[in-house]
Design a protein that fits this description.
Elements: H1 2-36, H2 48-57, H3 62-83, E1 95-99, H4 105-118, E2 127-130, H5 132-135, H6 142-154, E3 158-161, H7 175-190, E4 196-201, H8 207-210, E5 215-219, H9 224-237, H10 244-259, H11 268-286
Parallel strand pairs: 1-4, 1-5, 2-3, 3-4
Helix pairs in contact: 2-4, 6-7, 9-10, 9-11
Length: 296
């Protein structure tokens, strides 16, 4: 018993002495695992029909939906031709989305990634969104490494570059931007079999990038009626309803906003902001009601 007691004390003393070292080591192991291992991408369980239904269900964007559906049909047939031994055109999958913020570019890009996975054009179909700050480092030479890391993470899915026009803010003096463009254009060609790069912005991409794209899709601003439909859709998804009187007020307000819009017009984000304000006002009203009904 005395031997066992001494042994137990020694184990406790040893454990106490090593506690901080063990914690530090385990923390190091965890950080190393996070940095070095590829992230796990959860398989999207929706069918191709589900994804196409989601695309069709988007408010407005008629020209966008038609172009995307045409692209999907084209790629499906080209894949079928390759499987049957026929000649097929190896057009790039990369795309450029132009249009103002809040017009649904990110939403459509996500759907494209999942659809291309379902029809066998991408191995993962995941979605990675980046901007200039994610691609460009503060020192010469580091930008190339940063871009390569982003490309490696995106392979098998969609790399969505928002505000791509800002990559080279000044063609003559922005050496970091040019370094980024060099790596990006190389990746567009090298990994075209299992990577879709979608660049987005209110203007067409830099000429160095533009030459690498076959498909350009313009996202137009939403009309007042479409913004009302977006707002109704958000409300329906969250178990709220709009009264007829409120819809009439919103219609007048949005008609004015659309007719007087400038470069800062928020498009779909305006509908989301209105929704947030409505829900807050609703909460202020309902919290003062004793025993509110379901209708309240």
């Amino acid at each position: 018993d005395i031997t066992n007691a001494n042994s137990t004390r020694e184990v406790r003393q040893l454990a106490k002495a090593l506690k901080d070292s063990i914690v530090s080591f385990c923390g190091y192991r965890y950080v190393k695992k996070v940095i070095n291992e590829e992230p796990e991408y959860q398989e999207d369980e929706r069918t191709l029909d589900d994804l196409l239904h989601e695309l069709n269900g988007l408010v407005g964007l008629d020209n966008v939906k038609q172009q995307v559906k045409d692209l999907i049909d084209y790629q499906r047939v080209q894949k079928l031709r390759r499987e049957r031994g026929f000649h097929s055109t190896k057009n790039t999958l990369h795309m450029a989305f132009t249009g103002n913020p809040g017009t649904g570019k990110t939403t459509v890009a996500r759907i494209v990634g999942h659809v291309y996975k379902k029809i066998g054009l991408l191995s993962k179909g995941h979605f990675l969104e980046v901007s200039r700050t994610d691609l460009i480092a503060g020192y010469q030479g580091q930008t190339a490494l940063k871009v390569k890391k982003v490309i490696d993470s995106a392979r098998g899915g969609v790399l969505f570059i928002d505000e791509a026009y800002s990559i080279t803010e000044n063609d003559h003096s922005d050496s970091y931007g040019r370094e980024c463009l060099t790596e990006l254009t190389k990746a567009l060609e090298d990994y075209r079999e299992d990577l879709v790069v979608i660049v987005a912005g209110y203007t067409e991409p830099n000429p160095g990038l533009k030459s690498r794209f076959n498909t350009f899709i313009e996202f137009k601003d939403y009309s007042a009626n479409e913004l009302i439909d977006i707002l109704k859709s958000i409300c329906q998804q969250n178990d709220y309803s709009l009264s007829k009187e409120l819809v009439e007020l919103l219609q007048k307000f949005l008609d004015k906003e659309v007719s007087e819009k400038d470069e800062h017009f928020a498009n779909g984000r305006l509908a989301r902001n209105i929704y947030d304000d409505l829900v807050m006002n609703h909460a202020r009203r309902v919290v003062s009601i004793t025993n509110p009904t379901d209708e309240d």
